[in-house]
Each structure stands twice: as structure tokens, then as C-alpha cells.
């Protein structure tokens, strides 16, 4: 397995006592601790991680909970159309149509080991569709906000990720 690139962990990423909030236009907002996820079935996703910076990490195996399971628990009104996934770094966020986000995996393991902080642990969003972009794989996920309309200024992932390419 080719390893993912390592980037500096922002100072404001604190993984102790981590929780994930599912907020916005949901019937039941959720605040989930890592232990809460033990009650959800897990799934494995395998694939290459192709980065726009020009490198590839081959044959990665991610394990976690499909986001659809969280949506099933929270309940989505018919007016919900998009999701905004926020990182605990306070800057990085990525928007998705809900049907695409629902197919993503919230990964807690990489290669059979707990996901370390350098690689986005305790939880990293791993899109599973063939048209995924590397910048959509949000590290240190802290919130999934469900929205009725496409977010604009709040979607920072592509801009931040592509600014790293020289």
C-alpha cells in the first residue's frame, strides 16, 4: 500500500472527546461520540486515492459507517437537498448533493488500523463514487449540516486544497 501524504495537523484540531454533529434540516439533530458509532454497521471501501497534486496512494482500505445510516437515524425532510461537511479545523468544508454524500463512508480505520490524526482521524469522509475528487475527502469531520439549498461561501474545500498545488 502506498501511504497517503502527511500534512501538518492544525493547532485547533483536538481529537480528545471528539463528537460528530448532524444538524440543519433534519428531523432529529444528532450529537454522536466515537462510541455511538459502535451501534452502526460498518462497511469497507477499497480504492486508490488520486490527488490533484499529482500523487496516488494505491489500494487503500477504509472502514467506517456509510453516511446514509446517519441520515436514516436523523430523518431527512423532502426539502433537504445538500450536505455541508465541516472539519474541526474551523476552515475546511465541502458541500455535496445529499444522494452523493449518503453513499460516502465516514471512515474510522485505514488499512485495518484506527485512523490516525495525521490522516484525518478520528473520522474522515471518504467519497465512494467514481467521480470523487481528493479535496472532497474531509479530514477531522466534526459536523454534517443538511441544507435545503446549495451552500456557496461555506464550501471552502476545493479552494483550499487547490491552493496547495504549486
Automatic annotation (TrEMBL):
What top-level branch of life does the organism fall under? Archaea
TM helices/strands, residue ranges: none
**Record-annotated Oxidoreductase molybdopterin-binding domain positions:** 9-150
InterPro entries noted in UniProt: OxRdtase_Mopterin-bd_dom (IPR000572), OxRdtase_Mopterin-bd_sf (IPR036374)
Q: Record's SUPFAM superfamilies?
A: Oxidoreductase molybdopterin-binding domain (SSF56524)
Q: What is this protein called?
A: Oxidoreductase molybdopterin binding protein
**Organism of provenance:** Haloferax denitrificans ATCC 35960
